[in-house]
Amino acid sequence: MDNSQSISRVLERLNIAALNEMQLASLEANKEEKDVVLLAPTGSGKTLGFLLPILSRLNPDVTGVQALVLAPSRELAQQIEQVFRQMGTPYKVTCSYGGHPMKVEQNNLTEPPALLIGTPGRIADHLRRGSFDPASIRTLVLDEFDKALELGFQDDMESIINRLTGLQKRILTSATQALKIPAFTGLKNPTQLKFLGDVIPAGLSLKAVVANENDKLEALFRLICQIGQESALVFCNHREAVDRISGLLVGNGLIHEIYHGGMGQEDRERALIKLRNGSNRLLITTDLASRGLDIPQIRYVIHYQLPLTEEAFVHRNGRTARMMAEGTAYLVLAQDEALPPYLNEIPPVEELPESTVLPPKPEWATLYIGAGKKNKVNKMDVVGLVLQKGDLQKEELGLIEVRDFSSYAAVKREKANRVVDLLRKEKIKNQRVKIEVAR
Questions:
Q1: pTM above 0.90, yes or no
Q2: What CATH number is given for 3-194 in this structure?
């Protein structure tokens, strides 16, 4: 199959009509052996922008690891892995990151994948342990490189790159214009592709709501009620503010999830799963969710607290108006609140109604099933269990995600508790597992 046919098949599997300008430019630039630096904002499709060139360079006759992608966070690494799996290629992919059982990863690497994705710390650890041979790696991607430097991964990345003696191609991606590329990356006169937009991208409407008597919490609550059933991210500068907002919403019976660095990895993953499958439409978060996460199309971004830097503001706004779609970003301002230097004036102020009506609960709820890939469970096993034993119609079962040791299935909310009761004594893959409505 030639390359154009292969790309066409991939786009069909991903349900994408056509590549955007940035992805086409990346594909063209990466046909040459020259290194590439790809500068593009959050939500522009960078992942596919480097996965397609990787795919074109993989050789089915090579048995070792051929391409390595380093990502600054486990969530981003998992997202890249998920996109590659959805591409439906014949190549094996493995994802490695901190917090994931080392023994499981070492077992996965005994038969080396063509594509290895991971965080710098965990990949460096595997190299020290001799889990895989780096000599066969020909392509390296440093994704969200600016973020990796910000998080202190320079030493690990330098150690890894020094071990890649057969490297022929380097691709570096970043969402930051003023990026200094350290010598340890080995990039020399790379082709630079610049697709960074304005602070306020096309397709994004910027509005403000001003709190009465500086009560921003009350203004935020009224704004959320006005947004209703649409998806929204509420950004805060500190996790304490996230928890404070969550307390208010819990007290008012409003379904939502929170996401910040003080939470356990499993809790963070569950929050994103619920957002993806429609059992939650509202996420209260810090800047941890502003980039590098597998978050679906979001209609509204709400800046409860404005970030200190223009860069952070751009990344947050990139969560809406993605891939040329439209979205709205709201600033929640106290009456005497000063704007940061990157905003010249207060955007149009939207008046909120005094009376509030709580948005209806999402139509979906999430089932937790205590078995996953490492228990030989796949999506079809979950479908069979939930539809046959849970007495559901096909349209009452939504998105299913299977993790290493757990699975999640969206079901119609009004049926969720009954499904749990029906499945309480059932088995999956001949084993009885915990099944409950995910909290």
A1: no
A2: 3.40.50.300
